[in-house]
């Protein structure tokens, strides 16, 4: 072994080999020192280009592309890791990917501008006018409905067929452009619905031929062979992958997916068990919700019935009270006779004669006497 060359992991003695400890022990020594941009996959127009750490570019060979059922050429990849928050980048002028210009303001966590941003536009991304819809412009300077500050999603990927020699990168950084994020999210959502971890599938990427700018589409390319999973687990834990994840995010790096070290059959069992548990929990939650809803309905009905019964009882009691009062009043009032004149004048005695203004009509004899005749 050449003592002047750092050996590969396979050549390191077992008592020394400890990747985790090496990172912990060596990070402080290299802290604050940039080693440059990590190897990355670049979208050059409608061409996939590999860029190494020195900035040297190589077009991905057309012969290693995969032809899909739609006759489009797809670049195959395996997504090893992902940075959870979106990254943001804003440029003073029109951005040209070919120039490789650094952004004037950027954020690695979508919360606030990175301290090294040359021209930060706001203290917080949420309040930034460049982050508002309608602030964007196209290459010609025309206003668009989009945002001037562009969102991207950063992945660490493995590209089969990309290595020619041992020193070539094992992993590349891939930034999904803003208008391709929805396509990526739909792809990941479909995998999740099918119970397929992202790192166990071959992902195929091609350009959307309906637009002129580099917008990409993601497709499922099949399951990875079982014997490739442990090797991919090793690559996912390499320092170069950690550099992509930790170097592009101020948030803690996500751990390497443990699924790679697990054979698909066993993992599928875990997925099935987890899925069954999830379905059971969901069914129990739905049953509980239904029971609570039914109980609430029953309670409402009972309260309505009780209220109705109380109303009926009150009306019945009121009616009975009115009837009792009427009976009592009737018992205390004399019965009215049909021959009783209620006009205020009493009936004349049966023996009386015609009634005159002065009283009874006098007889003729009495009248003669009264007149002295």
In short:
This protein has 373 residues and is α+β, with helices and mostly antiparallel strands. It has helices at 19-30, 181-193, 229-236, 239-247, 264-332, 364-371, and strands spanning 40-44, 47-51, 57-59, 66-67, 73-82, 87-90, 105-107, 150-158, 172-176, 201-207, 216-223, 355-356, 359-360.
How far is the first residue's CA from the last residue's CA? 184 Å
Assess the beta-strand content as a share of residues. Answer: 15-25%
Q: Helical residue percent?
A: 25-40%
Low-confidence sequence ranges: 250-264, 266-271, 333-360
Number of helical stretches of at least 4 residues? 6
> What structural class do helix, strand and pairing data support?
alpha+beta
Largest sheet entry: 11 strands, mixed
Q: Radius of gyration, Cα only, in angstroms?
A: 48 Å
**Count of the separate structural domains:** 2
Number of strands: 13
Give the overall shape, derived from the CA principal axes: elongated
Quick tags:
373 residues, 2 domains, 6 helices, 17% strand
């Amino acid at each position: 072994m050449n003592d002047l060359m750092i050996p590969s992991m396979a050549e390191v003695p077992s008592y020394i080999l400890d990747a985790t400890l090496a990172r912990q022990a060596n990070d402080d020594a290299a802290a604050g020192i940039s080693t440059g941009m990590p190897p990355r996959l670049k979208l050059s127009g409608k061409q996939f280009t590999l860029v190494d750490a020195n900035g040297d570019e190589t077009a991905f060979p057309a012969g290693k592309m995969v032809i899909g059922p739609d006759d489009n050429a797809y670049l195959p990849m395996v997504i090893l890791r992902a940075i959870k928050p979106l990254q943001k980048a804003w440029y003073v002028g029109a951005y040209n990917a070919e120039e490789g210009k650094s952004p004037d303001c950027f954020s690695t966590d979508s919360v606030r501008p990175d301290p090294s941003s040359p021209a930060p536009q706001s203290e917080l991304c949420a309040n930034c006018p460049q982050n508002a819809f309608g602030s964007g412009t196209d290459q010609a300077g025309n206003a668009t409905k989009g945002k001037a500050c562009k969102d991207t999603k950063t992945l660490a990927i493995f590209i089969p067929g990309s290595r020619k020699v041992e020193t070539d990168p094992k992993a590349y950084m891939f930034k999904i452009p803003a208008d391709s994020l929805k396509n990526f999210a739909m792809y990941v959502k479909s995998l999740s619905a099918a119970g397929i971890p992202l790192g166990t599938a071959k992902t195929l990427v091609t350009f959307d031929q309906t637009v002129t700018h580099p917008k990409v589409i993601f497709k499922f390319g099949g399951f990875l062979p079982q014997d490739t999973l442990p090797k991919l687990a090793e690559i996912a834990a390499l320092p170069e992958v950690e550099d992509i994840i930790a170097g592009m995010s101020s948030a803690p790096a996500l751990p390497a997916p443990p699924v790679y070290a697990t054979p698909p059959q066993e993992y599928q069992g875990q997925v099935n068990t987890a899925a069954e548990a999830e379905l059971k929990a969901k069914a129990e939650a739905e049953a509980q919700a239904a029971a609570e809803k039914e109980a609430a309905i029953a309670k409402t009905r009972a309260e309505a019935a009780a209220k109705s019964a109380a109303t009926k009882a009150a009306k019945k009691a009121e009616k009975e009270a009115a009837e009792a009062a009427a009976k009592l009043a009737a018992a205390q009032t004399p019965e009215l006779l049909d021959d009783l004149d209620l006009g205020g004048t009493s009936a004349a005695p049966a023996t009386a004669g015609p009634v005159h203004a002065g009283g009874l009509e006098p007889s003729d004899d009495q009248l003669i006497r009264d007149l002295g005749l």
